[in-house]
Amino acid sequence: MLSIGACNNSGEKCSFASQYCKTSRMSQVIRLKSDLKNAIYKLKKSNASIGLVPTMGALHQGHLELVQLSMERYDVSIATIFVNPIQFNKKEDLEKYPKTEQADIQKLEEVGCDYIFIPNAAEIYEYQPKINLNFGYLEQILEGKHRPGHFNGVGIIVMKLFGLVNPDGAFFGQKDLQQFAIISALVTDFDLPFTLHLAPTVREASGLAMSSRNKRLGEEELKTAGVIYSTLQSASKQLVQGVSQNIILEDAMLLFKNTAGIELEYFEIVDAKTLQHKSVVNEGDRLALCAAAVVAGVRLIDNIIIEI
Q1: At what angle are helices 150-165 and 33-45 packed, to 10 degrees?
Q2: In angstroms, rounded to a whole number, what is the distance separating the alpha carbons of residues 103 and 100?
Q3: pLDDT tens digit sequence for 86-140
Q4: How far is 305 from 286, CA to CA, in rounded Å?
Q5: Cβ proximity of 147 and 178 under 8 Å
Q6: What tens digit of pLDDT does each residue of 48-95 get?
Q7: Domain 212-307: CATH class, spelled out
Q8: Strands 76-81, 50-55: parallel, antiparallel or unpaired by DSSP?
Q9: CB environment 270-283: b (16+ within 10 A), e (fewer)
Q10: How far apart are CA 109 and CA 116, in angstroms?
């Protein structure tokens, strides 16, 4: 990575790698793949390292922290904003997904993101994808079980972005832990030559994981949704104390049942890396407690990772 301390604030090119100083760069919005490819070509020619932050917009502090992490680790950071239609199981979810493009651009400019790629669907999917990605058992558990076809759509758009940007590193949030697992599988299976970074979940004051979907909830509904995190916390403490998984899951389900306005979809304890169920827990195991619930028609997911 470049040394920020070697830069001045004049806006002139730095003396290394032909990069502008981080303190004086302006964000550049790109909408066409051809323009993005041209920009990437120039960056690679100057030996600049590139960090990628894929998003679907409606940005919150969690997204911005991913961008800031990228800026700390790589010479140039590229955030993408694209609501990917092929990863939605329900048309109404796609239609209701919040879109705040101008506000998103402003937020990214304020943190100093170098490039913002905002294509439309026709630009990304000039032709209907012919391939179908299958992630094995990950398709049958947790999100895969409840959202058939979702990860195929995620995998295709991520591979498209990886191909377009050719990054040195890519950043994702822990809230979407299973998504990170399937992206890790892509990187491993296709020997993609870059690093994946998993960043901790950023939370609301109530503990609710920050999500673009939260924008669809009212104040009281946001408070109700806080039970997801409080239940995960309670269950994790029980697990560390040696309480049996059956009792932990029964207690969790009872908490949701006794909270009006929220419907539990699943609550599971799995291996933090494989996401497969662990019937026997041993000292030193890293576990993920994962939950999905619906509040006011909005589906929310969260998880906590602990070590026994």
Answers
A1: 50
A2: 6
A3: 999 888 999 999 999 999 999 999 999 999 999 999 999 999 999 999 999 999 9
A4: 7
A5: no
A6: 999 999 999 999 999 999 999 999 999 999 999 999 999 998 889 999
A7: alpha beta
A8: parallel
A9: bebeebeebeebee
A10: 9
Rounded-to-integer distance, Cα 219 and Cα 39, Å: 42
Does domain 4-199 sit in CATH 3.20.20.300? no
Let me know if 63 is a catalytic residue.
yes
Question: Residue ranges of the domains in the chain?
Answer: 4-199, 212-307
Is the CB of residue 24 less than 8 Å from the CB of residue 10? yes
| Active-site annotation holder among 63, 150, 197, 277 | 63
Instruction: With CA atoms as reference, report the closest residue to 141 among 155, 151, 132.
Output: 151
> 136: which 2 tokens?
């094995």
Assigned token pair, 116:
């913002």
Report how far residue 270's alpha carbon sits from residue 281's, in angstroms, rounded to the nearest whole number: 10
DSSP secondary structure letters along 226-250: THHHHHHHHHHHHHHTT--HHHHHH
Instruction: Classify the C-alpha dihedral 144-150-152-157 as positive or negative.
Output: negative
Q: What is the pTM of this model?
A: 0.90
CA–CA separation, 183 vs 199, rounded Å?
A: 14
Distant-in-sequence, close-in-space partners of 76: CB < 8 Å, separation ≥ 6 = 19, 43, 48, 49, 50, 51, 114, 115
Please give the pLDDT value at position 25: 65
Contacts of 128 (CB under 8 A, 6+ apart): none
